[in-house]
Amino acid sequence: MTHNPDSSKLIVGDAVDAAIESDMLNGVYAYWKSLLRDGGLPSRVDIEPWKIPNYLPFVNLVDVYWVDETTRRYRHRLLGTELVERFRESTDEWFDEVYTAEHLAVQLQAYDLAATTHEANLDTVIVVTQGATGMFETVYRRLMMPLASDGEQVDVLFLVFEFEQYDPDFHGRLSLHRPFMQRNEAR
């Protein structure tokens, strides 16, 4: 398994507008920006699902738990149906208990950046897995937008995934997840 190793491809803040090439991601990003309030971030309760029904299968809400000023833990609050189908169900699971160390080392940079800078970011993620017919790349764009109950401290990340390449015959778990026994041992 490999992931996108070049973190310089992470697009942050105002540059996200110009980098979005799809109607889907542009629609969700415009919706999030419309919720920004007087320089403060929108909260999770500001998200009205009926205003973005076509995107819901690709939405992921991630809780941000601030252990201290520099340490955060992340937990899946909600995964859209397409994400469950393509990855697996991991609602209410902590990232450090469900994902491999390799995956976390690469991916947490984007989560930490959104949580600490209060800016949206956009990334292209590549995961290579061994399938029944050989190696296959799953490629997706991930738009991450911070939310804050008080308008300031990020407590939820609002993500939308758009798949550019995916094997529809692949019904296993991507190798970014820990095996079940390792997940139980991490608890």
Descriptive notes:
The protein is of the alpha+beta class. The chain has a single domain (7-186), classed as Beta-Lactamase (2-Layer Sandwich). It has six helices and six strands; from the N terminus they run βααββαααβββα. The protein has helices at residues 15-19, 23-34, 81-86, 95-98, 101-117, 180-186; strands at residues 11-12, 59-66, 72-79, 121-131, 134-147, 156-165. It has a six-stranded antiparallel beta sheet, sandwiched between helices. The longest helix is centred in the middle third of the chain and has 17 residues, at 101-117. The protein is globular and about 50 Å long. The protein starts with 10 loop residues before the first strand and ends with a helix. The model is unreliable at 1-7 and 177-187 (pLDDT under 50).
What is the second-level CATH architecture?
Answer: 2-Layer Sandwich
Q: Taking all residues together, what is the mean pLDDT?
A: 83
Shape: globular
**Quick one: CATH superfamily?**
PAS domain
Task: Evaluate the radius of gyration.
Answer: 16 Å
Largest sheet: 6 strands, antiparallel
Number of helices: 6
Low-confidence stretches: 1-7, 177-187
Q: How are the strands ordered across the major sheet?
A: 1-4-5-6-2-3
Query: How many structural domains?
Result: 1
Order of helices and strands: EHHEEHHHEEEH
Fraction in helix: 25-40%
Q: What is the CATH first-level class name?
A: Alpha Beta
Going by helix content, strand content and strand pairing, the class is: alpha+beta
CA-CA gap between termini: 24 Å
What is the third-level CATH name, the topology? Beta-Lactamase
How many strand units? 6
